[in-house]
Amino acid sequence: MSARQLLAAILLVGGALAVAGPTAAERRGDDERGRVLFTSKECARCHKPRGERALGPPLEELRRRQGMLELAGRLWNHAPAMLGVLEWQKLEWPAISAPEMDDLMVYLQADPTRDPAPNLSAGQATLVRKGCLKCHRLRGEGGTHGIELTTYTGGYDSPVVWATGIWNHSPRMARQAAQIGVLYPRFTGEEMANLFGFLKSVAAPSP
Questions:
Q1: In this structure, are residues 55 and 46 in contact, taking their beta carbons and an 8 Å threshold?
Q2: Cβ distance 59 to 48 under 8 Å?
């Protein structure tokens, strides 16, 4: 192949990639889209700038420098109180897609580089200590209300995908926990990062 033919081939491949757009792994959220989403999903109804009267924590407490998995833990912790307010106001739980979660995380200043490297043994201990296996199963052992955690195909692909899954799952989990008399688990510090890392390490690979 001549130099001219090689150059033409490189340009052709590059053009095809440009049309296809970035892959899911390369895509990053957008701050402005996240801001719009925060309003459209009714988050701004309860989370207002500090000093304004609101039902939830001020916007500044949500929007701060943090890890993505740290934010996922905070979103999970927030579910029972938020569910109660939404039911009181007769509003539906706002479902969020993975691209939307990506935008929302950027707006809330979550950065994956701020999450620590997971401690897998601590993650396994967190799984047991938080009572996750009262509902879920791990290698066939555990409860029958939730999924088998090792076959959550694709659910551990990234912190964004993980946060999306637990956000959309948390209302059902909160109701289920109340029905069977289990304390709703809450996460602090590095617990969510450790749990995610452990589950990802034992899960079956995505197809």
A1: yes
A2: yes
